[in-house]
Amino acid sequence: MMPTANPFDPSLFKPEAIAPEVKAFNEAFLARMANMPSPGERQEEGAETPSPFGARPKSARASVRKVKANGIEVEVRVVPPASGNPHGAYLHLHGGGLVFGAADQDDAMLERIADATGLASVSVEYRLAPAHPYPAAWDDSEAAATWLAENVKAEFGDDALAIGGESAGATLAVPTLVRMRDRHGFTGFNAANLSYGNYDTSMTPSQVWVGANRYLIGTEDIRQCSNMYAPDVSLRRHPDMSALYANLKEMPPALFSVGTLDPFLDDSLFVYSRWIAAGNEAELAIYPGAPHGFNAIGHPHGDPANARIDAFLEAHTRR
């Protein structure tokens, strides 16, 4: 059998692949980020510090409820499709370095995904570090996934299931899938949307090489967050914390989205490869010149990336 073609296109990583409008956006964004506080400073100054994402409107459709599984009660925020007739659910885990963020920060995105896929978006209000370090957020995500696996048809019309998140949300989504397989014998998620996650808390080369060039986050920002959610450095390569080291067999089809300027570029490249090597289906979407969080900050690559995410989720969950 002949080997398949190399899925990594070298031209995507060359400087000339970055379009002029992308360069212009990046320069303006980098200037904005120069005055943004670090994660440690935000912890000291409180939640009212500036956000690079700007105002985030709340959905009039959203409802909040508490669910319980595995002895853990966790709050979830449900955003149904405009039709009001979902055929399953999308379990969403928000970003924020496992230190910041909330289930209500992504309502516009959750509405978009719900309308495009027909799935109710169910976002998890997991506990945050440093008050609640590892494994609190992991346990909360597993509890929400367990509840959803047991109740999706009764609560959301049918049993189509997807999972996903951005940044810290993608970081949590993979171990949640692994825990569901290993602890509950459940492999019923149909798709995973994994956008620029941190899959190695001990730091991949791209996390280190980004240095102080803060397109949203730099190396020191990552270290500060890691110190808050993973104070025990001996656990940083534990497969439950860092998905790069996990057994990834029997995972659902996954879409890995990442920009070439993202400090977690290597994380997506490495785990995409391991996903394939474990015998799973996966797609890799690389965006030249896109920084961390690009599809939530009005970046030129944002709309195409979001359209691909919606199409991927719809294709793998539509009944």
What do these coordinates show?
α3 packs across α9. Strands 1-2-4-3-5-6-7-8 form an eight-stranded mixed β-sheet, with helices on both faces. The protein is built from nine helices and eight strands. The protein has 319 residues and is of the alpha/beta class. The longest helix has 21 residues. α8 links the parallel β7 and β8. It has a single domain, classed as Alpha/Beta hydrolase fold, catalytic domain (Rossmann fold), CATH 3.40.50. The mean pLDDT is 92.
Rg: 18 Å
CATH domain class? Alpha Beta
Strand content: 15-25%
Strand order in the sheet with the most strands: 1-2-4-3-5-6-7-8
Q: Got a strand count? A: 8
Shape: globular
- Approximate helicity band: 25-40%
Summarize the structure.
The chain is 36% helix and 16% strand. The protein contains 9 helices and 8 strands.
Descriptors:
single chain; 319 residues; alpha/beta; Rossmann fold; 9 helices; 36% helix
List the helices and strands and how they pair.
Blueprint: H1 20-33, H2 39-45, E1 63-69, E2 72-79, E3 88-93, H3 107-117, E4 120-125, H4 136-156, E5 160-166, H5 168-184, E6 191-195, H6 205-209, H7 219-229, E7 254-259, H8 265-277, E8 282-287, H9 302-317
Parallel strand pairs: 3-4, 3-5, 5-6, 6-7, 7-8
Antiparallel strand pairs: 1-2, 2-4
